[in-house]
Amino acid sequence: MTTLTDALAHPRSSVRLQAVMAAGTTPDPADLDVLVERCAVEPDFFVRDMLTWALTRHPAPQVVARVLPELEQPEPQARSQALHTLSKVGDPAAWPAVQPLLADHDDEVLRAAWRTAVALVPDDERDALARTLAVQLGIGARERRLSLSRALVGLGEETVAPVLATAAERGSDAVREHVADTERLLHDPDAASSHALERARREVALGRTRSAKG
Length: 214
Known about the structure:
Low-confidence stretches: 208-214
Number of helices: 13
Structural class: mainly alpha
């Protein structure tokens, strides 16, 4: 009989996916280490997402205790996937360990940390988190900015509005533009999807124009 470790090393992602689904359907504490270790190296997004699902099938304290050390691993994927798992488990006990990653040097880890922080932050620290996130306004490419906007929106208008107003007043043009995008998203959650669709249409049109020109 193929072990979970062997199945997760299989070259076909469909085989790995089925193995993780089976592990989550009948959770076994003996599988925790294997599942967590695979999170750090699994190349397929869907398998990684299923790994997180399988982990959430175990008691939260066990998962958190095993996942927290991954936040200190040198591999960015280990840190980002650990954060993703913690956000799904939703145990506030993980909050103190998440906070240092709000200054991570890797964009993917940073974006995962923003999402996880919003999910786990205690009520009495929401204002402080909003101010911490606002420092990142105006930095990076669109996907990074959109992730930050979504995180800020997730804290709620009452918490975020004053922070955005201060950032717009004191910030650069890039910051003010990012604030405007965030405020738009705050009042219209579909704004980001609409913008992405319009941008895709423009890129397709430009591509066709370039092709027509040879």
